[in-house]
């Protein structure tokens, strides 16, 4: 297939949900320009992605792939999300040689669980995941190592799909491993391991600040920063994702990292402020500590022990750096197998234990409730769960009082793990920002399912 030149991509990887505008967007609205592009709005059901798109459609998707177009959740998004490796160079992270087949113990009962949505009222889970308002493409839940619920309203089981920021949990897990092994000092400056950032605002940021998003830098992802073309976040993502032309001009992602400034009246460690830049720098820390490519570390420590069906596809910057911050793809079932590594039934999906009890304890005991309280992510949690978590840590957005953890991804991707209830769940979506779309309640259903199955044991 001929690869057409893609204009500079400003893809807001921020895990921002609940941002909705009126369907009739005024000309001065910050999204008006992007929504005017062909394919940026919804005319097709998500089920359209279960079949191949015709050549003219694909051509149009390539021609109009720019700025926020890939995350608008419109018709073109259905193509982008399941075909990312077609327009970005990609590392293939191999699974274990022997695939592990997941057992099914499908439960019709849990499909009747109800949650009150803001936009469509009370819905059973069966109705919610196929409802056209929510644009979910796939969902899988695993209890005690067996699939108890699955649906594919907008993709096929063998399709790969972008994880978006749900993938940050891999970087968090590897960081915990290296710290436990004494190969990484959590309280050391990030620039000890990434010397090219010495002399910048990153000098005061520790590795622990990176992994817990408490860097104290002016690079937080929120509804304002992701729409600011002159801000460091938009500039960073644009330079990091680049184009298919291989010959890029202008600043690099390294230039942008050097330009990040500290926040006034805030020190590192004081407040949780989510930023993909933290995760990307942490990826560089991991590479320099191990003297290995980030994707090779993932294969050795995680994916190569997983009985996945297919490789994990990690997409790359123009200079070939793995985009560990969000841009990787897999099948839904392989995503669910990864999630199950955090549960007692890890042996149903892997040939060797990856997430040990000590690693799980390290992850869940980190973070600060005071740093998290009242921040942007707390508001997001209330929208997704109708429940307030305690804190965030090791790249997980939310850690609850009962030890359950969740990580969100842009356009509606997510991973939820509840080790105490031996439960894991994942989902993929193509959720737009504009009304009548934008609401996501999948995580709220996950918590109810986990609680119900735990009570029935």
TrEMBL record:
<dbReference type="InterPro" id="IPR050789">
    <property type="entry name" value="Diverse_Enzym_Activities"/>
</dbReference>
<keyword id="KW-0378">Hydrolase</keyword>
<dbReference type="Pfam" id="PF00144">
    <property type="entry name" value="Beta-lactamase"/>
</dbReference>
<feature type="signal peptide">
    <location>
        <begin position="1"/>
        <end position="23"/>
    </location>
</feature>
<dbReference type="GO" id="GO:0016787">
    <property type="term" value="F:hydrolase activity"/>
</dbReference>
<protein>
    <submittedName>
        <fullName>Class A beta-lactamase-related serine hydrolase</fullName>
    </submittedName>
</protein>
<dbReference type="InterPro" id="IPR012338">
    <property type="entry name" value="Beta-lactam/transpept-like"/>
</dbReference>
<keyword id="KW-0732">Signal</keyword>
<feature type="domain" description="Beta-lactamase-related">
    <location>
        <begin position="139"/>
        <end position="445"/>
    </location>
</feature>
<dbReference type="InterPro" id="IPR001466">
    <property type="entry name" value="Beta-lactam-related"/>
</dbReference>
């Amino acid at each position: 297939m001929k690869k057409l030149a893609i204009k500079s991509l400003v893809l807001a990887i921020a895990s921002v949900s609940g941002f909705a505008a009126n369907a009739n967007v005024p000309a001065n609205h910050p999204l008006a320009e992007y929504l005017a592009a062909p394919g940026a709005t919804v005319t097709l059901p998500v089920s359209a992605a279960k079949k191949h798109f015709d050549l003219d459609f694909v051509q149009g998707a390539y021609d109009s792939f720019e700025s926020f177009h890939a995350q608008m959740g419109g018709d073109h998004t259905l193509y982008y999300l399941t075909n990312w490796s077609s327009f970005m160079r990609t590392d293939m992270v191999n699974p274990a040689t022997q695939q592990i087949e997941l057992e099914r113990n499908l439960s019709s009962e849990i499909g009747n669980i109800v949650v009150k949505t803001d936009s469509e009222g009370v819905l059973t889970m069966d109705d919610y995941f196929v409802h056209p308002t929510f644009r979910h493409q796939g969902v899988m839940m695993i209890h005690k190592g067996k699939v108890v619920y699955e649906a594919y309203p907008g993709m096929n089981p063998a399709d790969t799909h972008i994880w978006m920021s749900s993938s940050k949990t891999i970087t968090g897990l590897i960081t915990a491993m290296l710290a436990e092994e004494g190969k990484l000092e959590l309280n050391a400056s990030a620039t000890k391991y990434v010397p090219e950032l010495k002399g910048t605002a990153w000098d005061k940021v520790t590795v622990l600040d990176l992994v817990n998003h408490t860097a104290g830098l002016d690079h937080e992802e929120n509804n304002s920063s992701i729409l600011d073309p002159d801000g460091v976040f938009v500039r960073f993502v644009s330079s990091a994702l680049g184009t298919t032309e291989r010959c890029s001009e202008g600043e690099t992602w390294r230039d942008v990292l050097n330009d990040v400034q500290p926040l006034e009246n805030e020190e590192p460690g004081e407040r949780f402020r989510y930023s993909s830049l933290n995760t990307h720098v942490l990826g560089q820390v991991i590479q320099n500590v191990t003297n290995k490519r980030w994707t090779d570390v993932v294969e050795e420590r995680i994916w190569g022990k997983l009985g996945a069906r297919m490789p994990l596809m990690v997409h790359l910057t123009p200079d070939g750096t793995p985009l560990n911050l969000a841009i990787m793809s897999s099948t839904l079932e392989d995503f669910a197998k990864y999630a199950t590594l955090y549960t007692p039934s890890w042996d149903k999906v892997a040939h060797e234990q990856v997430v040990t009890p000590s690693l799980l304890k390290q992850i869940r005991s980190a973070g600060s409730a005071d740093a998290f309280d009242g921040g942007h992510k707390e508001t997001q949690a209330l929208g997704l769960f109708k429940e307030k978590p305690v804190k965030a840590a090791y790249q997980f957005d939310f850690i609850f009082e009962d030890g359950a953890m969740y990580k969100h991804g842009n356009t509606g991707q997510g991973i939820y793990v509840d080790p105490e209830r031996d439960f894991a769940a994942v989902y993929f979506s193509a959720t737009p920002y504009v009304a009548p779309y934008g609401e996501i309640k999948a995580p709220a259903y996950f918590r109810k399912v986990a609680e119900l199955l735990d009570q029935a044991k």
